[in-house]
Design brief:
heterotrimer, A mainly alpha (about 290), B alpha/beta (about 290), C mainly alpha (about 300), A: about 290 residues, mainly alpha, MetI-like fold, 2 domains, about 75% helix, globular, C: about 300 residues, two-stranded antiparallel sheet, 13 helices, flat
């Protein structure tokens, strides 16, 4: 009897200990994220000013406006290429594809694309878009390279969002005489939109933060604002890298200020998307 | 009804095509009109310069000053490396390639294959300073000692008159012009750097590491000398703009701008301005050595 | 009469155009389905074709590159041996996984099994934040904060070492490992969990004997994906690892992983030249390695999916 009670007591002690250990690990992760954010704020906030955000890099005090604009257009360009193809591919996998070898191969390709290192995308973009297609170092080359990198994220999140739309909705629409495409475009896609948008924004915001793929395809250290897709652009991540490693007179304020702007921008967009999704989800329930 | 539908589609398509064609026509003359306008007093247009990270700061300062003098001129400067710059020049994407090394035969061939020839302009010189941590007691090295150190034959500061500490080698990466120059001039044409050398991506990264690491030795352009690190004399002479100018310091190399054929119009005005007193003053201000 | 026949005609022609449009859309969508295969194939083809010059060069070639330990592109003849860079990638990645795997899985267990609902929500957003922070920012933290701290802590000669880079990479691999492991544990059917608890097992016993084994393939896949992320990361290693080409297994010396070689040298090389081509060989190696890692992860994840699909 007492042996059994001992065992129970022992199990409870182990449970408490393990809860503590795993909890400590989780806490350590959370704390380091908080530390990262706090450090960025402490180092970056002093740089924040209107002239820093909207000024030109060569002026005194230096600004990062062209880098912000460049990152914005690179992201827009990435979206322009990756969204149509990615969403269509997601629709294909969820609505058209039959379970079979080909579908399996496509899924495998997507998983593998997601794992290809970003620098390899950079090499690929340099060889194909910059050299072979002669787009040069340009917004276009950079956007196309980043679009390839973002594609798997968009395909996967579209497919997942579509799969969560109940089959009943599709059948009801088809039963009313709507065609397959009409069912998809009028019923399934709107229902899945929150998931698709959030997933896409997550993917695009990662693209916005990438340095290695645009290093050899799009970015200039210093240039005016882009006027056409064939212009070179500045980009925040590359600007951070350059300002941290190149200048004769280090400007830590510019480095940390840019880092804060980049992280804040990416986080704000992500949080907004997540908030929108949870609101949209509350509205539609099944 | 069906007919009307197709007519509408046809009309819309034609209209769209027309608009695109018009837009295309509209923009072409505008583009060709640009270079014909520069009068003596008023330069206008855009120039793109890309290449060497060593030159990027001075190129940036040139662009800034030149644009201030000529408000209608836009000059874009990019780092990224000499090879990137020259490749962009070969592909016709830039007006000038900055290079911290002379153009290689392979590259000249590529340009020749396109029926063009590179024109080289030496726009500045760079003295290569040897730096160590400020806590290091070693003040002077001979060129031979430096070569032994970088080949990995001398591995302890004690062997060259310092404390009993292993030497930490810091270098640029193998595709940089500085790496190549230093190899030819110090390490030896037929010899190689020790494998333990840290191959850092920029001059500033070298300064940062030498500043933080008590046992490190590195080499950087004289423009990167700072109070945070010690400049080690080479054969009794410390690298500086003055010692390179008067020829007493041995390690210096040219920095170049390449153009596709002889520069014309705005490009010509720009390169002449760079070689003039205003441009060369900026070279000095940025810590490099003027060509004259 | 004429009116109604025209209306009929109109309706039937509209149906015809719609059917035609439907067919076109269907075609386009099926075509997009191929996009992933197309891009992946294109990457392989372009890497291989640009790498060919070095691979077929009698002085270089794959065998010499994979067995050589010296990378001297400017010596005569140029040497492009890069086994030391592969080992450098392994050293850095090894450090990252040694830290990120235990901590990540433990944190995932806590978040999935022990954490109250509100804390779970917060933890998930924090992890999303960590995943969204750009790599160059992690690089900055490595150069200015973590590297110097580790140098003092371990009495290392330099802050730029395999260890420093590995620690920074651990932070980057953590979100991947935590979120996928947590997903895997979360998707274990709750009957299993409740069954175990009903038999009198404690939460921890249930976790250890039921949840973790049931989710093991998902956890394994999370580790493989974290590994892929660590091997492929560029900016952090370029800035923090120190980039020396010694062939060593030491963690407190510098390392130059494959990604850093490409990022560091690509800008200056003669484009289309031998050195350029050699960098594509390095890229191709990286591609093949991450391909295999991801393939393994995917096959295992697929098994997991099949197991709970009923």
């Amino acid at each position: 009897m007492s042996v059994q009670r001992n065992r129970v007591r022992q199990a409870r002690a182990v449970e408490a200990a393990m809860k503590l250990v795993t909890g400590a690990c989780a806490a350590a992760v959370m704390l380091s994220a908080a530390g990262l954010l706090g450090y960025l704020l402490v180092r970056g906030l002093p740089a924040m000013s209107w002239s820093f955000l909207t000024g030109m890099p060569l002026k005194d005090p230096p600004g990062i406006w062209p880098a912000i604009v460049g990152t914005f257009w690179l992201t827009v360009g990435t979206a322009a290429f990756a969204l149509p193809v990615g969403i269509a591919a997601g629709i294909y996998l969820s609505e058209y594809a039959k379970r079979g070898r080909l579908t399996r191969l496509i899924r495998l390709s997507i998983a593998n694309m997601a794992g290809v290192p970003s620098i390899v995308y950079g090499l690929f973009g340099a060889a194909l878009f910059v050299m072979l297609l002669r787009f040069g170092l340009s917004l276009l080359s950079g956007s196309l390279t980043l679009a390839c990198l973002t594609l798997p994220v968009i395909i996967t999140s579209t497919e997942e969002a579509l799969r969560q739309v109940p089959q009943d909705l599709r059948q009801a629409s088809l039963a009313l005489g709507a065609t397959r495409w009409r069912t998809i475009s009028k019923v399934v896609l709107p229902a899945a939109a929150p998931g698709i948008v959030t997933g896409s924004i997550l993917g695009l915001s990662r693209a916005a933060g990438e340095t290695a793929p645009v290093m050899f395809t799009a970015v200039f250290f210093l240039t005016g604002l882009p006027k056409s897709p064939f212009d070179k652009v500045m980009a925040l991540p590359y600007h951070i890298y350059i300002m941290a490693t190149q200048p004769v007179r280090p400007q830590p304020l510019v480095v940390w200020g840019s880092a804060l702007v980049l992280v804040a921008g990416v986080s704000i967009v992500n949080v907004a998307a997540a908030a929108w999704r949870s609101r949209a989800r509350k509205k539609v329930r099944w | 009804m069906k007919m009307r539908k197709w007519l509408t589609i046809g009309a819309v398509t034609a209209l769209a095509a027309g608009t695109i064609a018009l837009a295309g026509c509209g923009s072409t003359p505008a583009k060709t009109a640009e270079p014909t306008t520069p009068a003596k007093a008023e330069l206008s247009g855009t120039l793109t310069v890309a290449g060497s990270d060593t030159l990027v700061n001075v190129a940036q300062a040139w662009a800034k000053a030149f644009m201030a003098e000529n408000p209608n001129v836009q000059i874009a400067v990019k780092g990224g490396g000499s090879g990137t710059g020259i490749a962009s020049l070969i592909n016709g994407q830039v007006d000038f390639a900055n290079s911290s090394r002379e153009m290689k035969a392979e590259e000249k061939d590529q340009l020749a294959a396109k029926g063009s020839e590179a024109v080289e302009t030496k726009v500045a010189r760079d003295g290569i300073a040897v730096i160590a941590n400020s806590a290091n007691a070693v003040e002077n090295l001979t060129k031979d000692q430096l070569g032994q150190i970088y080949r990995g034959e001398v591995t302890n500061w004690k062997q060259v008159g310092g404390a009993d500490k292993p030497i930490v080698l810091v270098s640029r990466d193998p595709s940089s012009g500085t790496y190549e120059y230093f190899k030819e001039a110090v390490v030896g044409k037929e010899r190689n750097y020790a494998k333990s050398a840290k191959l850092l991506p920029s001059n500033q990264a070298i300064v940062d590491e030498v500043k933080a690491n008590a046992d490190a030795i590195g080499y950087v352009g004289v423009g990167y000398e700072s109070a945070d690190v010690k400049v080690v004399a080479l054969d009794g002479v410390k690298a500086s703009v003055d010692t390179v100018l008067d020829g007493s310091y041995g390690l210096s190399r040219g920095l170049y701008m390449y153009s596709n054929g002889q520069p014309k119009d705005l490009a010509k005005a720009y390169i002449e301005w760079i070689l003039g007193s205003a441009g060369q003053q900026i070279v000095t201000d940025e810590g490099f050595v003027p060509v004259k | 009469m004429s009116e109604s026949s025209e209306a009929k005609l109109d309706r039937s022609s509209r149906a015809a155009t719609r059917r035609a449009a439907e067919a076109v859309v269907g075609r386009l969508i099926s075509l997009s389905g191929w996009s992933a295969i197309a891009v992946l194939t294109a990457i392989a083809v372009f890497l291989a074709s640009n790498a060919w010059k070095a691979l077929s060069d009698p002085q270089v070639g794959l065998i010499r590159m994979l067995t050589g330990t010296s990378w001297y592109p400017t010596s005569t003849p140029p040497l492009y041996g890069f086994i030391q860079y592969i080992i450098a990638s392994l050293r850095v990645t090894g450090v990252a996984l040694a830290i990120a795997v235990p901590i990540g899985i433990a944190a995932a267990i806590y978040i999935s099994e022990f954490a109250p609902a509100r804390l779970k929500g917060i933890a998930k957003s924090v992890i999303e934040f960590m995943a969204a922070v750009p790599s160059v920012v992690y690089g900055l933290m490595g150069v200015y904060v973590l590297g110097p701290a580790l140098k003092d802590l371990f009495g290392m000669q330099s802050a730029l070492t395999a260890l420093s880079a590995g620690v920074v990479l651990a932070f980057m691999a953590l979100p991947t490992i935590i979120s996928i492991s947590e997903d895997a544990m979360h998707s274990v059917p709750s009957e299993l969990r409740q069954g175990s608890l009903a038999l009198g097992n404690t939460h921890w016993q249930t976790t250890r004997k039921v949840i973790v084994p049931a989710a093991s393939s998902g956890i394994f896949a999370s580790v493989m994906l974290g590994l892929g992320r660590a091997i492929g990361e560029t900016m952090v290693v370029l800035m923090v690892a120190g980039n020396s080409m010694e062939l060593t297994w030491s963690l407190t010396t510098s390392a130059r992983p494959l990604t850093a070689v490409i990022a560091g040298e690509m800008g200056e090389v003669v484009q289309g030249g031998l050195h350029y081509s050699a960098l594509f060989v390095v890229g191709l190696t990286l591609f093949v390695v991450t391909f295999l890692v991801n393939l393994a992860a995917d096959l295992v994840l697929e098994r997991q999916r099949a197991r709970w699909r009923r």
